[in-house]
Amino acid sequence: RYASLLPSRNRLESKLTIDQTAYYSTRRFGVHFLANGDVKETIFISRYYPSRVGIRNHGNMSFWVDAFSQNAMIEQAYTLLPDGTRADVEKKAIQLVADSEDNIFTDSFEVILPYAGLEPGAITVLKVQRITKVKSMVLPWSRNFFPQTFLPHRKFELVLSWDEGGDPPIWKTDYEGINCTLKSIRTVLCVAEDIPAYQADPDIRYLDVLPAFVVAKYITWPGIVRRYRSRFMSQLSGGSEIQNSLKKIALNISSSE
After folding, report:
1. d(CA 88, CA 124)
2. Pairing of the two strands 153-162 and 23-33
């Protein structure tokens, strides 16, 4: 198991620099569009640490969850050492951190996993399943994936699939190093290999510059209008909290005039 996740020495020597002290062996994402409208995502990440500097800088892994519309389950989270020793992440060590951006009100939070037993040569593994209840969302479902990050990769994979009778997703990317093929009538596999690290710049917001692979459920502009109108009108029904708040605002405006 350890050997299958370990990058070859040639890959390491050609990809790592003194500032790149960890290496993604694999980042694999699956997105399956269910017949009931929900979206099931699978995440598998393995990361190799050749030095203590890498452990200090990248010893945690994390993923995001929206508390309002998503359920997530950690299926695997462990450290694998060269001698085959495996150390699972302790449940009590897992941290839930709310979005820390100023003036942002959101239901999203970051799940941070501190990995135990790390030493040079260690590999960390994370496998997560996340289901999104799309009908609970205000905006239509979409997701940005980043084949290239600030650490080099051995392999990036993205599998898109959908149930029979469902609409296929739409996708678009500006990363030239990825190839997508139709593996079956309702499955698309996209793969990129030997990906160099993107050169970081502390003065640039990385979401503005990293090449992205965007996946979304198909919807038209009239469909978005109908979606918003339906939600808005439902909140204006008799006795709703929003309607009562609007009445209070209107009374306050009238009294101040």
Report:
1. 10
2. parallel
Retrieve residue 74's tokens. Answer: 């950690």
Taking 3-state DSSP, the helix, strand and coil percentages for the chain, each rounded to the nearest 5, stand at: 25, 40, 40
35-44, 67-76, 77-86, 248-257: least confidently modelled range:
248-257
* Cα separation values, 133 from 4, 70, 107, 111, 118, Å: 35, 6, 14, 19, 36
pLDDT digits (tens, 9 = 90+) for 178-198: 999 999 999 999 999 999 988
Angle CA 158–163–165, to nearest 5: 135
The Cβ-side half-sphere exposure at 51, using a 13 Å CA radius, reads 11
DSSP string over 37-96: S-EEEEEEEEEEE-SHHHHHHH-EEEEEEETTTEEEEEEEEEEE-TTS-EEEPPGGG-EE
Within a 13 Å sphere around the CA of 124, how many CA atoms are in the beta-carbon half?
Answer: 24
